[in-house]
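seq as requested:
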Amino acid sequence: MMRQFDNADAAVSWAAVLIFFGALFPALALVSLLIRDAGSLVLPYNLLFFGGVAAQVVGAAFLLKQRRWAWPLTVAGVAVGILFDLILLRGLNGIFSLLISAFVMYLLLRPAVRERFGVGRR
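struct tokens:
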């Protein structure tokens, strides 16, 4: 009997949906930052944060199209997101975001997903 996330297509689809929904709040924060003070966007902290979100979204979109280069891009973006969640840990919202990001990372590191994108083959 096959478990639900042993199917690479299901795992990638779930990861992409969670990434897309998770990017809504940072997108709103980016718009708010651009309206208030566009100059602070170039601070290293903001560049790394929004770059990580962009890597997740672009990677997830191309994971759905099964592009091999999208897997490492998405994993790196999610790792940056987890790093920011651990550093900031904004109460219950931060814990929830950390759990979602950890679940997305779990989905991306499933053997069926890694095999689908040719990761770990020699």
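Residues 41 and 47 are 6 Å apart (CA to CA).
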